[in-house]
Amino acid sequence: MRTLSLSRPLTLKLTSGGNGTLQLGPDVPGETWYPGSVAITSTGVTTVATLATCTIYAGNAPTPANFVDATYNIFAAASSIIAGQVIHPG
Asked: In this structure, is residue 88 part of a structural domain?
């Protein structure tokens, strides 16, 4: 089995209500990801009144069973709680 480091940045423009969802995972059958950490950062959010959160799930849907971690710190935060999860296509 070949192991590679993965760095895949995603960009999201929030809706006027301040909502948005990013989804990332393997898209090739037979490919499996074993993430060690997730990095979180944001630009353009400049006021304290804007309380953004980032919630991380590992699975095929954002359900309580797939919940991994969450943070209010969206300016250069990271989570290693995802380590040990196995991410499959889909």
From this structure: no
